[in-house]
Write a structure and sequence with these properties.
434 Repressor (Amino-terminal Domain), about 50% helix, elongated
């Protein structure tokens, strides 16, 4: 979890504790008023759990300060604008998040990205995407709207063929070997990736495993123009739009780009990964 996110959540928890203390209630007392487990009160006050909007409204009433609910919910909105839990985003399945991705892509002219363990969604085949959504739905235990999500992801890829747009992506060579789908699906995916190298609107750089690096690749991220960076963690998706973070991720992208190979050399690495797949 991001340190910034945890700090913001801890600050919200401290505010809840302050309101409780001012009301004269102890932790057990406020839990009884709310009908909650004492452990939930402790997790919220110590920044270990993100409250819902309803939680905050009930807390404000419990401490006799219903008017402070708007302040608390404002803090929560600010927190969730940058740090969006997957639990909430995918509560109804993957399609809604894919529709949001279409809107984000449509709104910009330049997308830069770095992926270290998978093929970027903009370049995925339908079968590869299908397996990715199935694996994620099982892991996160969310509704399986797989086909709707796949169709939305394929619609997003229409932007690759629009004049005036640019998609510059770096892929860590190891991602070409990560198998979360059947080998025949991965083979077709690598064929697709090879074919995209050289497309007018697309620049694909592969960072070789043996390349000399100024810094390790860390994690994947996408930069939309200079307006937003999106970073995925296991439990949260971060939307960062401040100048400091945008500049930081641009430097990270440029550092990795120094070590990337393009054109025929990149195609050669992709074909080598393709050849490693033993198909019967």
């Amino acid at each position: 979890m991001s340190t910034d996110f945890q700090s913001a959540r801890a600050a919200l928890g401290a505010r809840l504790r302050e309101l409780r203390t001012e009301s004269g209630l102890n932790g057990k007392g406020v839990a009884e008023v709310l009908g909650w487990q004492r452990s939930k009160v402790s997790r919220l006050e110590n920044g270990k759990q993100t409250p819902s909007g309803t939680d905050l409204e009930e807390w404000a009433r419990a401490v006799g300060r219903p008017g402070v609910a708007s302040e608390l919910k404002g803090r929560l909105v600010g927190l969730e604008t940058q740090y969006r839990s997957w639990r909430r985003q995918l509560a109804g399945g993957h399609r809604a998040r894919q529709e949001l991705a279409i809107a984000e892509t449509t709104a910009v002219r330049l997308v830069r990205g770095m992926e270290v363990s998978r093929i970027p969604g903009l370049f995925q085949t339908a079968d590869y995407a299908r397996h990715a959504f199935e694996v994620n739905a099982e892991f996160r235990r969310v509704p399986r709207d797989i086909e709707a999500a796949v169709r939305a992801r394929m619609r997003r890829q229409e932007a690759l063929y629009e004049t005036g747009r640019s998609f510059r992506f770096l892929v860590w060579e190891a991602a070409l070997y990560v198998l979360t789908c059947p080998r025949e699906v991965m083979a077709a995916q690598l064929d697709r990736l090879t074919g995209l190298v050289g497309l007018d609107t697309v620049e694909i750089g592969v960072v070789p495993l043996g390349a000399q690096l100024r810094r390790a690749p860390g994690h994947g991220f996408w930069i939309y123009d200079r307006r937003r960076v999106i970073v995925e963690t296991i439990n949260t998706e971060m939307w960062l739009d401040d100048e400091e973070n945008i500049s930081l991720y641009e430097r990270a992208w440029e550092t990795m780009a120094e070590a990337a190979v393009h054109g025929p050399h990149a195609q050669g690495l992709i074909r080598r990964a393709r050849a490693s797949l033993t198909l019967t």
